[in-house]
């Protein structure tokens, strides 16, 4: 038996997110979702309509959590722009190592989605792009703070630099999945930060 109709839909989406994150859209079955969410098939489809809709809700859930986390690191008061970026990159490295140590080294759900379903689903691609633009804007703002306080080279275009940082973050996540340890991830972050300061 599944949960009664008044189950916590937000928690159900969070549970589904973990499955999609681990297995991807194509690798996730309805049975996987039912088991993780504690629902029977009819309850799942009556509530979420389709696997695609549930995936979209799961992605929105993940994006909201990760964007809020990034913003928290980029808005630390009293820190230079470069130090804010250092805090963010350090957290990325720590998250990846902790995830791998717990057996959940699935990488970034967003990066995984970009290289799979987003290529063939316009709605998912739009969600990814909207999130990316928000991240680029937040990173650009941190770069501009760094240029104002002198910690980041004033000659660098803030938006292009934000793209560079985004690329570094994606590379760190993929490297962690490939087996890079904390020392390597920290080194990648330091090399990127050194490039911004000079």
Could you walk me through the main structural features you see in this protein, from its secondary elements to its overall organization?
The structure is a single chain. The protein has helices spanning 9-27, 30-37, 41-48, 51-74, 81-101, 109-114, 122-149, 158-177, 182-197. The protein has 198 residues and is mostly helical. Helix 5 (81-101) runs parallel beside helix 8. The chain is elongated, with a radius of gyration of 19 Å.
Tags for this model:
single chain, 198 residues, mainly alpha, 9 helices, elongated
* Rg over CA atoms: 19 Å
Structure summary, number of beta strands: 0
Low-confidence sequence ranges: none
Order of helices and strands: HHHHHHHHH
How much of the sequence lies in strands comes to: under 5%
Q: Tally the helices.
A: 9
Helix content: over 70%
Please state the overall shape, judged from the principal axes of the Cα atoms: elongated
Overall mean pLDDT stands at: 89
Largest sheet: none
Helix/strand/pairing category = mainly alpha
Distance between the termini: 61 Å
Compact overview of the structure:
The chain has 198 residues and is mainly alpha-helical. 76% of the residues lie in helices and 0% in strands. The protein has 9 helices and no strands.
């Amino acid at each position: 038996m599944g949960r009664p109709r008044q189950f916590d839909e937000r928690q159900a989406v969070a549970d589904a997110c973990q499955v999609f994150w681990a297995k991807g859209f194509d690798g996730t079955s309805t049975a996987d979702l039912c088991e993780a969410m504690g629902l029977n098939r009819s309850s799942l489809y009556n509530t979420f309509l389709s696997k695609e809709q549930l995936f979209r809700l799961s992605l929105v859930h993940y994006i909201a959590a990760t964007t809020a986390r990034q913003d928290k690191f980029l808005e630390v008061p009293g820190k230079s722009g470069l130090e804010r970026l250092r805090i963010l990159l350090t957290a990325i490295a720590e998250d990846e190592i902790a995830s791998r140590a717990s057996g959940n080294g699935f990488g970034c759900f967003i990066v995984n989605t970009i290289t799979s379903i987003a290529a063939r689903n316009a709605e998912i691609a739009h969600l990814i792009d909207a999130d990316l633009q928000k991240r680029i804007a937040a990173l650009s703002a941190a770069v501009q703070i760094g240029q104002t306080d002198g910690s980041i080279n004033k000659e660098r275009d803030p938006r292009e630099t934000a793209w560079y940082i985004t690329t570094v973050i994606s590379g760190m996540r993929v490297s962690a999945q490939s087996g890079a340890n904390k020392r390597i991830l920290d080194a990648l972050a330091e090399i990127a930060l050194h490039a911004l300061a000079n």
